[in-house]
Amino acid sequence: MPGKIKVAIAGIGNCSSSLIQGVEYYKDVGEGDEVVPGLMHNVFGGYKVSDIEFVAAFDVDKRKVGKPLNKAILEKPNNTKIFQEVTKWGDVVVQKGPVLDGVAEHMAEYPEDQSFRVDESQKPVDVTQVLKDSGAEILMNYMPVGSQEATEHYAQAALDAGCAFLNCMPVFIVSNAEWEKKFVEKGLPCAGDDIKAQIGATITHRTLAKLFADRGVKINGTYQLNVGGNTDFLNMKRHHRLKFKKISKTEAVQSVLPEPLPDDNIHIGPSDWIPWIKDQKICFCRIEGEKFGNVPVNIEVRLSVEDSPNSAGCTIDGIRALKIALDRGVSGAITSISAWTMKHPKEQYPDPIAREMVEEFIVGKRER
């Protein structure tokens, strides 16, 4: 019978808060076929949500380091919705990871309750050793956008500790051939890169673009603009940290088109930070095209979501997929769950096909 899934998390921000709340929120969901709002799979390959156990946590913010995990998720600058009191994981203490490029310099310009704060007197731990000591099987990476060095540090720590790696942010690890080869050589699975939301800007934009293409409409131009009030959007106010984020989101849409649009005809990316809307994300999407007789057609969508619970709905399946891969001895990129839940997987597939691939992976008809 399946056992527990021991998970470590790097980055105890809003997304981690929503995931941890959700694991407790859905702890009583059993093996029935009833539709449970918020879950794509009640049971995933024999694993229930309640099988997920958090055994280690890393952050750099002085308000979280040294706190029990169930308390740290409530600390500033986290501002996502609290939908579940978390009574578990009080014995898991958040430890300080290396800062590296995980905190942008401009964060110091903003009020303390809206941005990261680091206490230099707190020394970072040996991440690899903590992973080994905790018995972690999977390391989740939730570093801020633009944290190339920090992400690579955690990826290497996972390799050294013998952990699977779930990369939820847009530094390309799983989709990078050299990094993926390292996981293959270590006999470890990985999934990534850059988590999609359950119903978010990317999946909505992809679906509409594919609809236009499938119905014979020529797309002439499209944009997707996003605003939000969490630290992720504040972090992205420095455009140099957006390089891989923009690539990830743009390729996710371009990949469903019969021919990629010219660069000047597609614009996708965060546009601004509005602190009072907190963890709410608002997306403005427009697609312009030509239908029968070259007659113009366009569509505009405004999507408003609480950002972090949206990602947790996908990571909860990503965790269970990696555990199945560990059980089966599969190494390297898990193509199915990456294509279904990530913006920049190693291989892009249309969403309906990716979903079928996941179902085949669960029952063992696909190796990865």
TrEMBL record:
GO molecular function, one term: inositol-3-phosphate synthase activity
GO biological process: inositol biosynthetic process; phospholipid biosynthetic process
A Pfam entry, by short name: Inos-1-P_synth
Superkingdom to which the source organism belongs: Archaea
Start and end residues of each Myo-inositol-1-phosphate synthase GAPDH-like domain: 200-308
Family indicated by similarity: Belongs to the myo-inositol 1-phosphate synthase family.
Protein name: Inositol-3-phosphate synthase
Organism encoding this protein: Candidatus Iainarchaeum sp
